[in-house]
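General statements about sequence and structure are easier to judge against a single worked case. For one protein, we set the task of working out the structure tokens from the amino acid sequence alone. The sequence in question and its structure tokens are set out directly beneath this paragraph.
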Amino acid sequence: MKIGILSSGGDCPGINATIRGVGKSAISHYGMEVVGIHNGFTGLLNKDFEVFDERKLSGILNMGGTILGTSREKPFKKVLESGDNNKPQVIRQNYLDLGLDCIVCIGGNGTQKTAYKLSQLGLNIIGVPKTIDNDVYGTDVTFGFDSAVNIATEAIDRLHSTASSHKRVMVVEVMGHKAGWIALYAGMAGGADVILIPELGFNIDKISEKILQRSSAGKPYSIVVIAEGLNAGKDSLAGYISSEIEKLTEIEVRTTVLGYIQRGGNPSPFDRNLATRLGGHATELIATGAFGRMVCIQGSDVSSVNLSEVAGKIKLVPVGHDLIKQGLNMGISFGV
């Protein structure tokens, strides 16, 4: 068999570990031919690929980013000017011309949706969920999430000392476009006093009340962690919340936006192992002809779900999540 591997969407720690997991098991165990497709679906449109051997897949387990490159090309998106889009058919023809038996698509929600649509065109597809946001439907966890939480938690840890020294409120904005997984996990792990996630919304008066309560109790500083996707109706979410807190509490506030630093760097050991397991299972599915599926983690087991169950869906933080319940029991404010 001849298989292709591509990574699409935002970069993320653990993509290279996944490429390695798929490629090495495909070559060593199943005797497959493996090609790496450059720059996501753009590479499929342009026939931009390279042949992989074991040597090319060595030394990439601990590397951040993706050796294949990535893009946000969405081949099923209509061309606005003409209303016509032949990109899916170009991809289908190139798939046939390259003699591929399957494509492994590593990516987040958008990638899995595209993967499902390609499978409907008759292409053999296996999806591998990837995102630091942890919001891909159908899997308990995605690789990249643990690495991002580690980075965000370390930043929060460091901000405690300067907040305490200067008796300030520190507002820390972390990533999470639509889901608050990073804010919740890093906020709890970093001992934040206020955690704001899109799933719950927020009331600025409730946040200020919490900060004033802490001040009255002899705790003159507070840490506020917010997810970037929280809709405040403002261009700068962190800036808006910071200015409102300062106005309502008369306590000095400083803002830190972590941004893309959460995506960069080497994957954590957990993410390396998770990516390796998912990559290996993707190859097993190919070998058995179980196409049109996305590999996933359910509990402690590696499994798979039909791409039709994943496409177009987002996994949000349940409002009854046990970390939220425990946080409330401990006096942490969620802004509501």
